Amino acid sequence: MARDMVRFGVLKALWTSFSVIAVILVLGATPSPAADADPAATTAEQDPDAGAILMRMTRHLAQAQQLGVTVVSGYDAIQENGERIEYGERRRIELQRPDRIRVEVERSDGDRGSLVFDGKALTAFKPEDNVYAVVEKPGSTDAAIVYLVKDLQITMPLARLFLTTLPQDMEKQVEEIAYVETCTLMDVPTDHLAIRGKEVDLQIWIAQGDAPLPRRIIITYKDAPGQPQFRAYFSEWSMDKAPAADRFTFTPPAGAEKVPFIISARGSKPAPPKEGGTP
Amino acid sequence: MTLRIPSISLCLAVMFLFLLSLPGIADARGGGRGGGGGRGGSGFSRSSPASGGGFSSSRSAGASQRSAGVSQQRAAGVSQQKAAQRQPQASTTQSRQGQRQESQGTRQEARQGNQDTRQQGRQENQGNRQDNRNEARDDRMDYRDDAREDWQDFAEDEHWDHHDHWDDDWDEGEAFVAGAVIGVTAGAIAASAAQPTYVTTLPCAGTTVIVNGASYYQCGTTWYSRGYQSGTVVYVVGSPPPGY
Predict the structure, then answer these.
(1) Do B161 and B51 form a contact (C-beta atoms < 8 A)?
(2) pLDDT of B75-115, one tens digit each?
(3) What ipTM is given for this predicted complex?
(4) Which of A29, A201, B24, B192 is 20 to 30 A (C-alpha) from A184?
(5) CA B157 from centroid of its chain's CA atoms
(6) Please, which residues have CB within 8 angstroms of residue B23's CB and are 6 or more apart in sequence?
(7) How far apart are CA B147 and CA A157, in angstroms?
(8) What's the rounded Cα separation, in Å, for the pair B164 and B173?
(9) Is the CB of A195 inside 8 Å of chain B's CB atoms?
(10) Which residues from chain B sit within 8 angstroms of residue A146, using beta carbons?
(11) Which of residues 133-192 of A touch B (CB under 8 A)?
(12) Any residues with CB less than 8 A from the CB of A40 and at least 6 apart, and which?
Protein backbone atom coordinates (compact mmCIF):
# COMPACT_ATOMS: atom_id res chain seq x y z
CA MET A 1 0.00 0.00 0.00
CA ALA A 2 2.73 2.35 0.99
CA ARG A 3 4.73 1.27 -2.07
CA ASP A 4 1.78 1.98 -4.33
CA MET A 5 1.56 5.39 -2.92
CA VAL A 6 5.24 5.98 -3.49
CA ARG A 7 4.89 4.77 -7.05
CA PHE A 8 1.97 7.00 -7.60
CA GLY A 9 3.95 9.94 -6.34
CA VAL A 10 6.81 9.09 -8.62
CA LEU A 11 4.53 8.69 -11.61
CA LYS A 12 3.00 12.02 -10.87
CA ALA A 13 6.41 13.62 -10.81
CA LEU A 14 7.19 11.97 -14.12
CA TRP A 15 4.04 13.25 -15.68
CA THR A 16 5.14 16.72 -14.83
CA SER A 17 8.79 16.37 -15.84
CA PHE A 18 8.46 14.07 -18.87
CA SER A 19 11.87 12.79 -18.12
CA VAL A 20 12.60 9.54 -19.90
CA ILE A 21 15.72 9.07 -17.88
CA ALA A 22 13.71 9.27 -14.71
CA VAL A 23 11.39 6.52 -15.98
CA ILE A 24 14.34 4.26 -16.52
CA LEU A 25 15.78 5.03 -13.12
CA VAL A 26 12.50 4.41 -11.36
CA LEU A 27 11.80 1.18 -13.17
CA GLY A 28 15.29 0.06 -12.36
CA ALA A 29 14.77 0.80 -8.73
CA THR A 30 11.49 -1.08 -8.55
CA PRO A 31 12.09 -4.48 -7.03
CA SER A 32 11.82 -7.16 -9.70
CA PRO A 33 11.27 -10.76 -8.74
CA ALA A 34 13.30 -12.03 -11.74
CA ALA A 35 16.34 -9.91 -11.13
CA ASP A 36 17.67 -11.95 -8.25
CA ALA A 37 17.24 -15.37 -9.85
CA ASP A 38 20.42 -17.37 -9.41
CA PRO A 39 21.69 -18.68 -12.74
CA ALA A 40 24.46 -20.70 -11.12
CA ALA A 41 22.49 -23.94 -11.22
CA THR A 42 22.76 -24.20 -15.01
CA THR A 43 26.39 -23.29 -15.59
CA ALA A 44 28.92 -25.66 -16.98
CA GLU A 45 30.44 -26.59 -13.68
CA GLN A 46 29.27 -30.18 -13.61
CA ASP A 47 30.84 -31.15 -16.89
CA PRO A 48 34.58 -31.44 -16.41
CA ASP A 49 34.52 -34.57 -18.54
CA ALA A 50 32.96 -33.11 -21.69
CA GLY A 51 36.38 -32.64 -23.23
CA ALA A 52 37.39 -36.14 -22.20
CA ILE A 53 34.27 -37.62 -23.77
CA LEU A 54 34.94 -35.79 -27.01
CA MET A 55 38.58 -36.79 -27.16
CA ARG A 56 37.78 -40.38 -26.37
CA MET A 57 35.44 -40.43 -29.35
CA THR A 58 38.05 -38.92 -31.64
CA ARG A 59 40.67 -41.44 -30.57
CA HIS A 60 38.23 -44.27 -31.00
CA LEU A 61 37.61 -43.23 -34.59
CA ALA A 62 41.21 -42.39 -35.37
CA GLN A 63 42.54 -45.69 -34.09
CA ALA A 64 39.98 -47.92 -35.74
CA GLN A 65 41.45 -50.38 -38.21
CA GLN A 66 38.23 -50.46 -40.13
CA LEU A 67 34.93 -48.72 -39.93
CA GLY A 68 31.65 -48.53 -41.69
CA VAL A 69 28.92 -46.00 -41.08
CA THR A 70 25.81 -44.65 -42.71
CA VAL A 71 25.45 -40.90 -42.50
CA VAL A 72 22.09 -39.35 -43.23
CA SER A 73 22.58 -35.65 -43.36
CA GLY A 74 20.82 -32.46 -44.22
CA TYR A 75 21.83 -28.87 -44.52
CA ASP A 76 20.14 -25.51 -44.77
CA ALA A 77 20.34 -23.70 -48.05
CA ILE A 78 19.41 -20.12 -47.27
CA GLN A 79 17.68 -18.71 -50.31
CA GLU A 80 18.11 -15.21 -51.59
CA ASN A 81 14.86 -14.20 -49.93
CA GLY A 82 16.04 -15.64 -46.66
CA GLU A 83 13.95 -18.78 -46.83
CA ARG A 84 15.55 -21.82 -45.30
CA ILE A 85 15.40 -24.98 -47.40
CA GLU A 86 16.84 -28.32 -46.38
CA TYR A 87 18.64 -30.61 -48.78
CA GLY A 88 20.22 -33.85 -47.81
CA GLU A 89 21.88 -37.08 -48.68
CA ARG A 90 22.53 -40.57 -47.45
CA ARG A 91 26.11 -41.74 -47.52
CA ARG A 92 27.64 -45.10 -46.69
CA ILE A 93 31.29 -44.86 -45.82
CA GLU A 94 33.55 -47.86 -45.46
CA LEU A 95 37.16 -47.54 -44.47
CA GLN A 96 39.80 -50.19 -44.14
CA ARG A 97 43.02 -48.76 -42.87
CA PRO A 98 45.64 -48.26 -43.97
CA ASP A 99 44.51 -47.77 -47.56
CA ARG A 100 40.98 -48.75 -48.59
CA ILE A 101 37.90 -46.54 -48.91
CA ARG A 102 34.46 -46.95 -50.36
CA VAL A 103 31.81 -44.25 -50.36
CA GLU A 104 28.32 -44.50 -51.78
CA VAL A 105 26.13 -41.45 -51.92
CA GLU A 106 22.53 -40.82 -52.74
CA ARG A 107 21.44 -37.26 -52.68
CA SER A 108 17.95 -36.18 -51.67
CA ASP A 109 17.09 -35.62 -55.35
CA GLY A 110 18.12 -39.15 -56.24
CA ASP A 111 21.48 -38.29 -57.75
CA ARG A 112 23.86 -41.13 -56.98
CA GLY A 113 27.57 -41.67 -57.07
CA SER A 114 30.33 -43.74 -55.59
CA LEU A 115 34.01 -43.54 -54.84
CA VAL A 116 36.45 -46.38 -54.43
CA PHE A 117 40.05 -46.21 -53.30
CA ASP A 118 42.01 -49.45 -53.48
CA GLY A 119 45.30 -48.19 -52.12
CA LYS A 120 46.61 -47.30 -55.56
CA ALA A 121 43.90 -45.51 -57.48
CA LEU A 122 40.80 -43.47 -56.80
CA THR A 123 37.76 -44.17 -58.92
CA ALA A 124 34.64 -42.05 -59.07
CA PHE A 125 31.57 -43.52 -60.69
CA LYS A 126 28.26 -42.01 -61.77
CA PRO A 127 25.77 -44.81 -62.39
CA GLU A 128 23.15 -42.62 -64.10
CA ASP A 129 25.59 -41.45 -66.71
CA ASN A 130 27.54 -44.72 -66.62
CA VAL A 131 30.81 -42.84 -66.55
CA TYR A 132 33.77 -43.21 -64.25
CA ALA A 133 37.04 -41.43 -63.70
CA VAL A 134 40.23 -42.92 -62.34
CA VAL A 135 43.34 -41.32 -60.96
CA GLU A 136 46.43 -43.09 -59.68
CA LYS A 137 47.13 -41.96 -56.16
CA PRO A 138 48.90 -44.56 -54.05
CA GLY A 139 48.85 -43.82 -50.36
CA SER A 140 46.94 -44.01 -47.10
CA THR A 141 43.27 -43.38 -46.43
CA ASP A 142 44.23 -40.03 -44.96
CA ALA A 143 46.14 -39.01 -48.07
CA ALA A 144 43.32 -40.18 -50.29
CA ILE A 145 40.66 -38.24 -48.39
CA VAL A 146 42.71 -35.08 -48.43
CA TYR A 147 43.46 -35.54 -52.13
CA LEU A 148 39.80 -36.17 -52.82
CA VAL A 149 38.68 -33.01 -51.13
CA LYS A 150 41.59 -30.73 -51.73
CA ASP A 151 42.71 -31.64 -55.22
CA LEU A 152 39.74 -33.31 -56.83
CA GLN A 153 37.32 -30.84 -55.24
CA ILE A 154 34.92 -33.59 -54.28
CA THR A 155 32.61 -32.92 -51.39
CA MET A 156 32.90 -35.28 -48.49
CA PRO A 157 30.89 -33.98 -45.57
CA LEU A 158 32.57 -34.39 -42.22
CA ALA A 159 35.68 -35.60 -44.02
CA ARG A 160 37.87 -34.91 -41.07
CA LEU A 161 36.01 -37.39 -38.92
CA PHE A 162 37.64 -40.07 -41.03
CA LEU A 163 41.23 -38.93 -40.73
CA THR A 164 43.65 -40.39 -38.21
CA THR A 165 44.52 -36.82 -37.30
CA LEU A 166 41.02 -36.24 -35.91
CA PRO A 167 42.07 -35.89 -32.25
CA GLN A 168 44.61 -33.17 -33.01
CA ASP A 169 42.21 -31.47 -35.41
CA MET A 170 39.48 -31.45 -32.83
CA GLU A 171 41.73 -30.07 -30.13
CA LYS A 172 42.65 -27.19 -32.37
CA GLN A 173 39.06 -26.38 -33.16
CA VAL A 174 37.44 -26.39 -29.74
CA GLU A 175 37.35 -23.09 -27.93
CA GLU A 176 34.68 -23.98 -25.39
CA ILE A 177 33.04 -27.26 -24.63
CA ALA A 178 30.15 -28.07 -22.33
CA TYR A 179 28.18 -31.11 -21.34
CA VAL A 180 24.52 -30.55 -22.12
CA GLU A 181 22.81 -33.71 -20.92
CA THR A 182 22.48 -37.39 -21.30
CA CYS A 183 20.16 -37.88 -24.21
CA THR A 184 17.87 -40.88 -23.97
CA LEU A 185 16.09 -40.64 -27.27
CA MET A 186 18.31 -42.86 -29.38
CA ASP A 187 18.79 -46.61 -29.15
CA VAL A 188 21.66 -46.03 -26.73
CA PRO A 189 22.11 -43.24 -24.20
CA THR A 190 24.32 -40.54 -25.61
CA ASP A 191 26.37 -37.70 -24.18
CA HIS A 192 25.21 -34.47 -25.69
CA LEU A 193 28.11 -32.04 -25.95
CA ALA A 194 28.06 -28.42 -27.04
CA ILE A 195 31.23 -27.08 -28.59
CA ARG A 196 32.00 -23.56 -29.57
CA GLY A 197 34.63 -22.93 -32.20
CA LYS A 198 35.81 -19.78 -33.80
CA GLU A 199 33.54 -20.01 -36.81
CA VAL A 200 31.13 -22.81 -36.08
CA ASP A 201 29.20 -24.14 -33.15
CA LEU A 202 29.03 -27.87 -32.91
CA GLN A 203 26.69 -30.16 -31.05
CA ILE A 204 27.54 -33.79 -30.93
CA TRP A 205 25.86 -36.81 -29.40
CA ILE A 206 28.30 -39.55 -28.49
CA ALA A 207 27.19 -43.02 -27.49
CA GLN A 208 27.96 -43.93 -23.91
CA GLY A 209 29.73 -47.18 -23.17
CA ASP A 210 32.52 -49.09 -24.83
CA ALA A 211 31.94 -47.77 -28.32
CA PRO A 212 32.04 -43.98 -28.04
CA LEU A 213 30.87 -43.25 -31.55
CA PRO A 214 29.11 -40.13 -32.75
CA ARG A 215 25.41 -40.68 -33.32
CA ARG A 216 24.31 -37.23 -34.22
CA ILE A 217 25.98 -33.97 -35.10
CA ILE A 218 24.79 -30.44 -35.73
CA ILE A 219 27.07 -27.78 -37.06
CA THR A 220 25.95 -24.16 -37.06
CA TYR A 221 27.75 -21.77 -39.36
CA LYS A 222 27.22 -18.82 -37.14
CA ASP A 223 29.08 -16.33 -39.31
CA ALA A 224 27.34 -17.26 -42.54
CA PRO A 225 24.25 -15.32 -43.63
CA GLY A 226 21.16 -16.90 -42.11
CA GLN A 227 23.30 -19.11 -39.86
CA PRO A 228 22.69 -22.31 -41.78
CA GLN A 229 23.14 -25.67 -40.14
CA PHE A 230 24.47 -29.03 -41.19
CA ARG A 231 22.82 -31.95 -39.39
CA ALA A 232 23.71 -35.60 -39.55
CA TYR A 233 22.65 -38.87 -38.02
CA PHE A 234 25.11 -41.71 -37.88
CA SER A 235 23.83 -45.25 -37.97
CA GLU A 236 24.89 -48.78 -38.82
CA TRP A 237 28.33 -48.30 -37.34
CA SER A 238 30.45 -51.35 -37.89
CA MET A 239 33.88 -51.31 -36.33
CA ASP A 240 34.65 -54.96 -35.76
CA LYS A 241 34.18 -56.59 -39.09
CA ALA A 242 36.35 -55.80 -42.07
CA PRO A 243 34.28 -55.08 -45.16
CA ALA A 244 34.54 -57.67 -47.92
CA ALA A 245 37.61 -57.13 -50.05
CA ASP A 246 35.62 -56.62 -53.23
CA ARG A 247 34.03 -53.56 -51.69
CA PHE A 248 37.27 -51.81 -52.46
CA THR A 249 37.69 -52.74 -56.08
CA PHE A 250 35.91 -51.06 -58.92
CA THR A 251 34.75 -53.07 -61.89
CA PRO A 252 33.31 -50.89 -64.63
CA PRO A 253 29.82 -51.97 -65.68
CA ALA A 254 29.25 -52.91 -69.30
CA GLY A 255 29.40 -49.91 -71.57
CA ALA A 256 30.77 -47.59 -68.92
CA GLU A 257 32.78 -44.73 -70.34
CA LYS A 258 36.03 -43.71 -68.74
CA VAL A 259 36.35 -39.95 -68.51
CA PRO A 260 38.94 -37.68 -66.95
CA PHE A 261 38.61 -35.87 -63.67
CA ILE A 262 38.10 -32.19 -64.33
CA ILE A 263 38.76 -29.62 -61.70
CA SER A 264 37.59 -26.06 -61.86
CA ALA A 265 40.26 -23.44 -62.26
CA ARG A 266 37.69 -21.07 -60.82
CA GLY A 267 38.27 -22.66 -57.51
CA SER A 268 41.48 -20.73 -57.25
CA LYS A 269 39.72 -17.46 -57.75
CA PRO A 270 39.93 -15.33 -54.65
CA ALA A 271 36.66 -14.47 -52.97
CA PRO A 272 34.97 -11.40 -54.41
CA PRO A 273 35.42 -8.23 -52.42
CA LYS A 274 32.57 -7.61 -50.06
CA GLU A 275 30.41 -4.63 -50.83
CA GLY A 276 29.82 -1.82 -48.44
CA GLY A 277 33.06 -2.33 -46.59
CA THR A 278 31.80 -5.11 -44.38
CA PRO A 279 34.69 -6.96 -42.88
CA MET B 1 -17.99 -42.85 -23.18
CA THR B 2 -17.59 -39.49 -21.60
CA LEU B 3 -14.10 -39.29 -23.03
CA ARG B 4 -15.13 -40.25 -26.49
CA ILE B 5 -17.17 -37.24 -27.44
CA PRO B 6 -14.50 -34.68 -26.63
CA SER B 7 -11.84 -36.70 -28.44
CA ILE B 8 -14.02 -37.06 -31.51
CA SER B 9 -14.73 -33.40 -31.58
CA LEU B 10 -11.06 -32.71 -31.08
CA CYS B 11 -10.29 -34.93 -34.04
CA LEU B 12 -12.82 -33.11 -36.15
CA ALA B 13 -11.43 -29.78 -35.09
CA VAL B 14 -7.92 -30.84 -35.99
CA MET B 15 -9.06 -32.15 -39.35
CA PHE B 16 -10.94 -28.96 -39.98
CA LEU B 17 -7.90 -26.87 -39.18
CA PHE B 18 -5.78 -29.06 -41.40
CA LEU B 19 -8.19 -28.68 -44.29
CA LEU B 20 -8.24 -24.97 -43.74
CA SER B 21 -4.49 -24.80 -43.97
CA LEU B 22 -4.22 -26.82 -47.17
CA PRO B 23 -5.02 -24.03 -49.60
CA GLY B 24 -2.40 -21.95 -47.88
CA ILE B 25 0.21 -24.62 -48.39
CA ALA B 26 -0.70 -25.01 -52.02
CA ASP B 27 -0.47 -21.28 -52.54
CA ALA B 28 2.90 -21.08 -50.95
CA ARG B 29 4.21 -23.82 -53.17
CA GLY B 30 2.89 -22.27 -56.31
CA GLY B 31 4.48 -19.01 -55.41
CA GLY B 32 7.78 -20.65 -54.81
CA ARG B 33 7.81 -22.31 -58.16
CA GLY B 34 6.71 -19.30 -60.06
CA GLY B 35 9.35 -17.14 -58.61
CA GLY B 36 12.12 -19.55 -59.30
CA GLY B 37 13.49 -18.37 -62.55
CA GLY B 38 15.72 -21.04 -63.97
CA ARG B 39 17.54 -22.32 -60.98
CA GLY B 40 16.61 -25.93 -61.32
CA GLY B 41 13.28 -27.65 -61.23
CA SER B 42 12.04 -26.31 -57.94
CA GLY B 43 13.46 -22.86 -58.26
CA PHE B 44 15.41 -23.30 -55.07
CA SER B 45 19.13 -23.19 -54.80
CA ARG B 46 21.00 -26.02 -53.11
CA SER B 47 23.94 -23.78 -52.54
CA SER B 48 24.94 -23.35 -48.93
CA PRO B 49 28.03 -22.87 -46.84
CA ALA B 50 26.62 -25.64 -44.66
CA SER B 51 26.37 -28.25 -47.37
CA GLY B 52 29.87 -29.58 -46.93
CA GLY B 53 29.50 -30.26 -43.24
CA GLY B 54 32.84 -28.66 -42.61
CA PHE B 55 34.06 -27.88 -39.15
CA SER B 56 34.82 -24.27 -39.85
CA SER B 57 33.57 -21.51 -42.04
CA SER B 58 36.56 -19.35 -42.55
CA ARG B 59 35.95 -16.68 -45.12
CA SER B 60 39.53 -15.88 -45.80
CA ALA B 61 39.89 -17.21 -49.29
CA GLY B 62 43.51 -16.91 -50.28
CA ALA B 63 43.86 -20.31 -51.82
CA SER B 64 45.59 -19.89 -55.09
CA GLN B 65 47.85 -22.86 -54.80
CA ARG B 66 45.53 -25.27 -56.45
CA SER B 67 45.30 -24.76 -60.18
CA ALA B 68 48.91 -25.55 -60.92
CA GLY B 69 50.44 -28.94 -60.83
CA VAL B 70 47.42 -30.97 -61.68
CA SER B 71 48.12 -32.08 -65.18
CA GLN B 72 51.21 -34.20 -64.70
CA GLN B 73 49.45 -37.48 -65.00
CA ARG B 74 47.23 -36.66 -67.84
CA ALA B 75 49.05 -37.98 -70.86
CA ALA B 76 49.71 -41.37 -69.36
CA GLY B 77 47.88 -44.41 -70.49
CA VAL B 78 45.69 -42.93 -73.16
CA SER B 79 46.12 -45.78 -75.56
CA GLN B 80 45.47 -48.34 -72.91
CA GLN B 81 42.28 -46.65 -72.01
CA LYS B 82 41.16 -46.40 -75.58
CA ALA B 83 41.73 -50.08 -76.05
CA ALA B 84 39.58 -50.79 -73.09
CA GLN B 85 36.82 -48.70 -74.55
CA ARG B 86 37.02 -50.15 -78.03
CA GLN B 87 34.09 -52.44 -77.69
CA PRO B 88 31.62 -52.64 -80.50
CA GLN B 89 28.81 -50.22 -79.90
CA ALA B 90 26.14 -52.72 -80.71
CA SER B 91 26.99 -54.89 -77.75
CA THR B 92 26.17 -52.12 -75.34
CA THR B 93 22.99 -53.02 -73.58
CA GLN B 94 23.13 -50.57 -70.77
CA SER B 95 19.98 -48.55 -70.86
CA ARG B 96 21.57 -45.17 -71.05
CA GLN B 97 24.10 -45.99 -73.65
CA GLY B 98 21.37 -47.69 -75.56
CA GLN B 99 19.18 -44.66 -75.46
CA ARG B 100 21.94 -42.54 -76.65
CA GLN B 101 22.63 -44.69 -79.61
CA GLU B 102 19.01 -44.73 -80.51
CA SER B 103 18.85 -41.02 -80.32
CA GLN B 104 21.91 -40.82 -82.43
CA GLY B 105 20.16 -42.81 -85.08
CA THR B 106 17.13 -40.64 -84.88
CA ARG B 107 19.25 -37.64 -85.23
CA GLN B 108 21.12 -38.87 -88.22
CA GLU B 109 17.90 -39.58 -89.97
CA ALA B 110 16.58 -36.28 -89.00
CA ARG B 111 19.66 -34.57 -90.23
CA GLN B 112 18.43 -35.15 -93.75
CA GLY B 113 15.02 -33.90 -92.82
CA ASN B 114 14.21 -30.64 -91.24
CA GLN B 115 15.59 -29.26 -88.10
CA ASP B 116 12.37 -29.45 -86.18
CA THR B 117 12.27 -33.17 -86.43
CA ARG B 118 15.78 -33.42 -85.22
CA GLN B 119 15.11 -31.20 -82.29
CA GLN B 120 12.05 -33.19 -81.53
CA GLY B 121 13.91 -36.46 -81.55
CA ARG B 122 16.56 -34.94 -79.46
CA GLN B 123 14.11 -33.71 -76.94
CA GLU B 124 12.31 -36.98 -76.69
CA ASN B 125 15.41 -38.96 -76.32
CA GLN B 126 17.24 -36.68 -74.08
CA GLY B 127 14.50 -34.80 -72.34
CA ASN B 128 15.16 -36.66 -69.19
CA ARG B 129 18.81 -36.04 -69.24
CA GLN B 130 18.40 -32.43 -70.05
CA ASP B 131 16.12 -32.06 -67.10
CA ASN B 132 18.61 -33.65 -64.86
CA ARG B 133 21.23 -31.44 -66.26
CA ASN B 134 19.28 -28.32 -65.61
CA GLU B 135 18.41 -29.37 -62.18
CA ALA B 136 21.90 -30.37 -61.50
CA ARG B 137 23.24 -27.06 -62.57
CA ASP B 138 22.91 -25.42 -59.21
CA ASP B 139 24.00 -28.54 -57.53
CA ARG B 140 27.11 -28.73 -59.52
CA MET B 141 27.90 -25.27 -58.43
CA ASP B 142 27.26 -26.35 -54.93
CA TYR B 143 29.55 -29.25 -55.24
CA ARG B 144 32.18 -27.04 -56.61
CA ASP B 145 31.68 -24.49 -53.92
CA ASP B 146 31.75 -27.01 -51.18
CA ALA B 147 34.71 -28.76 -52.54
CA ARG B 148 36.57 -25.58 -52.94
CA GLU B 149 35.90 -24.74 -49.37
CA ASP B 150 37.07 -28.09 -48.26
CA TRP B 151 40.32 -28.07 -50.06
CA GLN B 152 40.97 -24.57 -48.92
CA ASP B 153 40.41 -25.87 -45.51
CA PHE B 154 42.95 -28.55 -46.01
CA ALA B 155 45.30 -26.01 -47.45
CA GLU B 156 45.00 -23.95 -44.33
CA ASP B 157 45.77 -26.15 -41.46
CA GLU B 158 44.13 -24.08 -38.84
CA HIS B 159 40.76 -24.75 -40.45
CA TRP B 160 39.05 -28.06 -40.48
CA ASP B 161 36.80 -27.15 -43.28
CA HIS B 162 36.49 -24.05 -45.25
CA HIS B 163 33.24 -22.48 -46.20
CA ASP B 164 33.52 -19.49 -48.34
CA HIS B 165 31.27 -19.96 -51.27
CA TRP B 166 29.19 -16.88 -51.84
CA ASP B 167 30.35 -16.57 -55.35
CA ASP B 168 27.11 -16.04 -57.09
CA ASP B 169 28.38 -15.66 -60.60
CA TRP B 170 29.21 -19.35 -60.47
CA ASP B 171 25.55 -20.03 -60.81
CA GLU B 172 25.65 -19.27 -64.51
CA GLY B 173 25.34 -22.83 -65.60
CA GLU B 174 26.18 -22.44 -69.23
CA ALA B 175 29.20 -20.28 -68.78
CA PHE B 176 32.41 -21.75 -70.01
CA VAL B 177 34.70 -22.55 -67.17
CA ALA B 178 38.41 -23.01 -67.33
CA GLY B 179 39.42 -26.30 -65.85
CA ALA B 180 42.27 -28.68 -65.53
CA VAL B 181 42.44 -32.35 -66.29
CA ILE B 182 43.47 -34.91 -63.74
CA GLY B 183 44.20 -38.49 -64.50
CA VAL B 184 43.91 -40.40 -67.71
CA THR B 185 42.53 -38.48 -70.64
CA ALA B 186 40.99 -39.70 -73.80
CA GLY B 187 39.10 -38.71 -76.86
CA ALA B 188 38.48 -35.07 -77.44
CA ILE B 189 40.04 -33.92 -74.25
CA ALA B 190 43.32 -35.63 -74.95
CA ALA B 191 43.77 -33.39 -77.93
CA SER B 192 42.81 -30.22 -76.14
CA ALA B 193 44.90 -27.84 -74.16
CA ALA B 194 46.22 -28.47 -70.70
CA GLN B 195 43.53 -26.14 -69.43
CA PRO B 196 40.38 -27.18 -71.20
CA THR B 197 37.15 -25.30 -70.84
CA TYR B 198 33.96 -27.03 -69.93
CA VAL B 199 30.29 -26.39 -69.39
CA THR B 200 28.03 -27.94 -66.83
CA THR B 201 25.14 -27.89 -69.29
CA LEU B 202 25.42 -28.33 -73.03
CA PRO B 203 24.54 -25.01 -74.67
CA CYS B 204 22.33 -26.69 -77.26
CA ALA B 205 20.49 -29.88 -77.96
CA GLY B 206 23.19 -31.04 -80.29
CA THR B 207 24.35 -34.20 -81.93
CA THR B 208 25.70 -37.13 -80.00
CA VAL B 209 28.22 -39.46 -81.57
CA ILE B 210 29.81 -42.47 -79.95
CA VAL B 211 33.22 -43.43 -81.23
CA ASN B 212 35.28 -46.15 -79.62
CA GLY B 213 33.00 -46.12 -76.63
CA ALA B 214 33.45 -42.40 -75.99
CA SER B 215 30.54 -40.02 -76.34
CA TYR B 216 30.97 -36.81 -78.25
CA TYR B 217 28.47 -33.99 -78.32
CA GLN B 218 28.32 -31.36 -81.02
CA CYS B 219 26.89 -27.88 -80.73
CA GLY B 220 27.51 -25.83 -83.85
CA THR B 221 31.15 -26.32 -84.63
CA THR B 222 32.12 -27.12 -81.06
CA TRP B 223 32.62 -30.67 -79.87
CA TYR B 224 32.41 -31.78 -76.30
CA SER B 225 33.22 -34.91 -74.41
CA ARG B 226 32.42 -35.77 -70.86
CA GLY B 227 34.41 -35.36 -67.70
CA TYR B 228 33.82 -35.95 -64.01
CA GLN B 229 33.89 -32.83 -61.95
CA SER B 230 33.05 -32.53 -58.26
CA GLY B 231 30.51 -35.29 -58.28
CA THR B 232 28.83 -34.49 -61.58
CA VAL B 233 29.36 -34.97 -65.28
CA VAL B 234 30.52 -31.94 -67.24
CA TYR B 235 31.09 -31.33 -70.95
CA VAL B 236 34.59 -30.46 -71.94
CA VAL B 237 35.41 -28.59 -75.13
CA GLY B 238 37.62 -30.71 -77.34
CA SER B 239 38.30 -31.88 -80.84
CA PRO B 240 35.81 -33.73 -83.02
CA PRO B 241 35.79 -37.50 -82.91
CA PRO B 242 37.89 -39.33 -85.49
CA GLY B 243 36.19 -39.22 -88.86
CA TYR B 244 34.17 -36.06 -88.21
Answers:
(1) no
(2) 333 333 333 343 333 333 344 444 444 444 444 444 444 44
(3) 0.73
(4) A201
(5) 31
(6) none
(7) 10
(8) 19
(9) no
(10) 154
(11) 133-136, 146, 149-160, 169, 172-173
(12) none
